[in-house]
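Key result, reporting period 2: structure in, sequence out.
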């Protein structure tokens, strides 16, 4: 084993594990504040996941008012509040603007770079960290935390030649991410590392992920996306939540923003083996009564038209045919022959297409991980472990997860900055 701690006597030495969004922010911040920082990243490049976020466009944060921010995280809103207020969405935007990147706002407050290229952000971000004096060591997988009683004193890492090296420091920041998209490097190592230090890890589950549904309806609609639907989630016949956004029908079931944002609670329902149903309102601008009146008008006023032709007024592509099949009504049936019962069946299909969730897409496809290091064991004002002194956490390795729209990167940046400052004794 080689001891590779080259920190000066006067500077605090800090080791950051993981060079993703939170780790780069923690490392650069600590170095800027005067610490000697070593960043150990197991990939050959940093920020692999950051580059592919937002469909490779990198949706770094959201423009919603900062006071509304906490409500966009699931159970972690109170825990994150201090970090978010200390380094807000406006701070994140200014930070990257200072790296010569310009942003614009898109739908639902999403903030994206004007050049639509997430890679520029990763490159500028890494350069910033290096410019602050961070010593970046790629291809270095951390295997173990070095503990002395209730303190962390360093780590043991393995390089690409399987050589084991030890690094000693005054503080260690664990920023290894969650388990989603493991090909980017986040394979859950941090859970094991934190576990060996005595931390509890809330069972990781895929979040912001596609939902697999029973029956053939969704599969038959594969490829159709609707920009504006309301999806309600029912667990054991109790309405848990509703969201209004876009939906995409896929070969396995459902995806798109509305499904991703509902998936957190739906995945829990499925794991707990409770009856998990989705009710989709395909025509959210009209209530049942309005739709009924409109359908009556259509069917009575255009008696010669075929049933499916009327449906084309409401549904795109092959949807009218799938609807006819589902309702068991002949597509070519003249409108005048459509009974009141059939009209009611159609209204219910349009307003509450009900599908049962049987499963969900795995970590390979999930945008984030729900679960992770128990927040109760981390000081929300500093990100320091309440169990091991000088051990800090940043980003998704903790049990924090938010909705789509830039909230997860914002959490990574805010907690990374807070951990970086706290680790060198400059807490906010
Ligand atoms: C496809 C996709 C799109 C997304 N789009 C968005 C978006 O547009 N907006 C948004 O807000 N969020 C988005 N997210 C979520 C967001 O990317 C994550 O929440 C965020 O990257 C988490 O940052 P992190 O630093 O905690 O972890 P990561 O970015 O996962 O970084 C962890 C780093 O630690 C390294 N590491 C792991 N184990 C070790 C080890 N043992 N030793 C050394 N290094 C290690 C990994 O290689 C990795 O580089 C997206 C996620 C995905 C997968």
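The corresponding designed sequence is given below.
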């Amino acid at each position: 084993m080689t001891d590779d701690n080259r920190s000066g006597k006067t500077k605090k030495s800090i080791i950051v594990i993981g060079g993703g969004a939170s780790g780069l922010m923690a490392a650069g911040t600590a170095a800027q504040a005067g610490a000697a920082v070593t960043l150990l990243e197991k990939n050959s490049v940093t920020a692999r996941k950051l580059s592919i976020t937002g469909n490779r466009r990198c949706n770094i944060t959201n423009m919603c008012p900062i006071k509304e921010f906490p409500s966009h995280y699931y159970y972690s809103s109170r825990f994150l509040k201090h970090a978010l207020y200390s380094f807000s969405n406006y701070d994140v935007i200014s930070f990257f603007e200072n790296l010569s990147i310009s942003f614009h706002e898109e739908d639902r407050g999403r903030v994206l770079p004007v050049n639509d290229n997430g890679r520029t952000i990763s490159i500028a971000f890494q350069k910033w960290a290096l410019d602050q004096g961070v010593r970046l060591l790629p291809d270095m997988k951390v295997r173990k935390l070095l503990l002395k009683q209730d303190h962390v004193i360093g780590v043991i890492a393995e390089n690409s030649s399987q050589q084991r090296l030890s690094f000693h420091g005054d503080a260690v920041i664990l920023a290894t991410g969650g388990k989603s998209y493991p090909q980017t490097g986040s394979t859950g190592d941090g859970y094991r590392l934190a576990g060996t230090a005595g931390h509890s890890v809330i069972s990781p589950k895929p979040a912001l992920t596609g939902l697999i549904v029973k029956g053939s309806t969704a599969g038959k609609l594969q490829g159709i996306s609707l920009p504006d639907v309301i999806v309600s989630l029912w667990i054991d016949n109790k309405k848990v939540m509703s969201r209004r956004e876009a939906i995409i029908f896929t070969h396995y079931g459902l995806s798109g923003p509305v499904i991703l944002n509902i998936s957190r609670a739906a995945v829990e329902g499925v794991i707990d083996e409770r009856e998990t149903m989705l009710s989709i309102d395909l025509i959210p601008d009209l209530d049942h009564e309005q739709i009924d009146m409109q359908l009556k008008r259509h069917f009575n006023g255009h008696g010669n038209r075929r049933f499916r032709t009327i449906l084309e007024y409401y549904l795109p592509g092959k949807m009218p045919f799938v609807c006819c099949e589902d309702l068991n009504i002949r597509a070519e049936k003249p409108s005048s022959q459509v009974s009141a019962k059939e009209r009611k069946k159609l209204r219910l299909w349009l307003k509450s297409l009900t599908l049962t969730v049987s499963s969900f897409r795995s970590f390979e496809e999930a945008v984030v991980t729900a679960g992770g290091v128990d927040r109760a064991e981390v000081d929300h004002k500093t990100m320091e472990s309440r169990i091991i002194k000088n051990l800090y956490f940043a980003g998704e390795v903790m049990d924090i997860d938010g909705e789509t729209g830039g909230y997860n990167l914002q959490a990574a940046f805010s907690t990374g900055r807070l951990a970086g400052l706290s680790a060198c004794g400059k807490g906010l």
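The chain has two domains: 2-206+369-423, 210-361. Residues 1-5 have pLDDT under 50 and may be disordered. This case is discussed further under Risks and Mitigation.
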